[in-house]
Amino acid sequence: MTCAEGLSLQRVSAPFCIICLSTLRRHSSLSLCTVFQEDQFLSDSFHTHAHTPQRGHLQHRPIVMALPDTAPLLAGLLLLFHAFGAWAIVVVNMEDKVEVMAGETAQITCMFTTDEGLGGTTIQWFYVPPNKERQRIYNKEPMHEAAEQNTLFTHRISLNVNGTAAVLVIRDVGVKDNLEFICVIKTLTREEAEGRTQLQVFKSPTFPTIEAVETGISVNEDQSKIGSCKVKNGYPKPNITWYRNNMPLRNTQHEVDVSSSTTTESSGLYSVQSELTMKVKKEDKDAEFYCEVVYFVPGATKMTESQRINISVYYLPTEVNIWVESPKGKIKEGDTLELRCDNNGNNPSSITTIKHQNSEYSVDNKTMVRTNVTRLDGGVYECTFTETDNFEEISGSTKVSVNYLESAVITPKDSIAVMEGEELKASCNALSSLQTSTTWFKNEKLVSKGNTLSVKSATLETAGMYKCVVTVPEMEGMKTSGILQVNVKGSPQILGPDVQEVETYETTVNLTCSARGFPVPTIMWTTSDGKNLNALQTETEDGAQSVVTFKITSNVKVFCNASNDFGSKVVEFNIKAIVHTTPTTTTTTSTNTITDDTVQTPTKSPNIKKESKGFVIAIIIIAIFLLAILGSVLYFLYKKGRICGRSGKQDFSKRKSSKDNIVVEMKSDNTEEAILLGVNGEKQQPNDQ
């Protein structure tokens, strides 16, 4: 073993210092050592060789002093000390560094060995302030130990000694505790050794915040600010890297410039802000920018990313498009037309206009709207973008077709009159930009398809109102129509039979007569005795109708006469006046009590015609049936003794017969009461039977 591998600085009583001590006291080999005056310790003839330990390993800090001029003296002294047995060893081993997160508790271990034992050992701890001499913070002697007062660590440190391990405990560590700590071990013989450990404190920064520029950036600018990224309160200082579409951005002349600034907070933590400036391209309109923050923790390196941002890139268009936004499909007159114009550029300083047939229209949000369009609104529409900076123009166009359907035109117009038996022919047409379909209706019923209405032989039934409907099958809602009145010339016809029978109990009668024909017939009313009756006449679709009201006192005939230029027609109404009659009843008186029973025939309702005779017969049959039921009930009561004054069933064979006790039951069709008569024709009471 060399002297440099086993030596530690030792102090002995003044005026001498032991610079080198052998680590092999009980072996025959000796290491180079010397004794010199204390003032010689500081002379310029000394050359100090420092040993740098590896990271993470316990350190052994020997100090070797080479004094070639005193080599003989050192050799003699070594022999002297060996003879008297005055050799002593103090060794201190410590880690190069201890890492801890801010706010946690740090433990710095000092491992030491000494031949004198632990009883008289003194342990002292120091820290080295920046650019200052070291300051003691803890002192442990054999009979006393305490933390030094008025230091940064007075109330936050304690010392745990376990055998040859002295552990300095620092609570609530902060970034200001990122210092070098020294452990010094002393023996009773004033020998001492020391070790050093660097305490490294870490603090994770906040989540990075990123802000993009609010205004757009033109591709014509040299370089523009894209955004800024900031991270706060980290230790050690975090590093920020910018990314575009997952690719890191590095400083490139005239292209990319990343600048960062660091702020040291009052707490000792670091806040870092980075700004990205670059020359944008058209492709950057869809790019995502973000920043990555790299920071340190005990034994590792971590990374976090900010949110993504986008920027607005302004660039000139190379193509303009204009199209019909609404309605979808074909356009017809009356629709609302919405045109939209757009381009592949992005420049807010441009002006958009739409031209049509030498007329220029303003555009709102790249859209132009025209309501209730006509065929005149069709044609070519041109959209133009004009740059306000250099007044350059770029245009695009589209053609718009507005389909139309004009009003239906019927020939002949409005109405047509044909002779009965002749051919009826009419046509219906409507001018349209698309194929049309024509149908004819009468009384809402389909009578013909096609633009021509044709009837070979017209009759009075042919007359009436016809409707022509023209539609466009390709487009729903395109429809027009026209009306044609068809009149058939001929002698009038009266609806109904030529002779009509009327029976009534009323004194006032209403008669209706409907006639068709063209020209419109004139209807006259007369009676069989030659009187003319005043009546109200109204025109109908195919003729006229008349209603007459008059009083009757007896049977009478009334005639309806309809006439025009081509002839006349007469219908006869035979009116039979029925007089109200009240039938009489027969009254029969018995020997004991006289009772007058009046049986009335039900009154018939007026206006009964011949067709009502069957109804009267049915009523009579029902009345006879009811009378039969009543007679059966009376006979049943008689047998039970409930009538004729009997309290129970009696045997007629035991009773004396006489002419006064002979009873005959008579029924009448005019009454619902059965009358019991004696043989002498007198009516008897039930209790006398």
Outline the structure in words:
The protein is mainly beta and 689 residues long. It is built from 2 helices and 52 strands. Helices cover 6% and strands 45% of the residues. Strands 36, 38, 39, 41, 42, 44, 47 and 48 form an 8-stranded mixed sheet that branches. Strands 7-15-14-9-10-11 form a 6-stranded mixed sheet, with no helix packed on it.
The class by helix and strand makeup works out as: mainly beta
Q: What percent of the residues sit in helical stretches (DSSP H or I)?
A: under 10%
Rounded mean pLDDT score? 78
Rg on CA atoms, Å: 67 Å
In total, the number of strands is: 52
* Poorly predicted spans: 1-86, 584-612, 645-689
Q: Please report the distance between the alpha carbons of the first and last residues.
A: 171 Å
Largest sheet: 8 strands, mixed
Shape, principal axes of CA atoms: elongated
State which percent range the strand residues make up: 35-45%
Provide a count of the helices.
Answer: 2
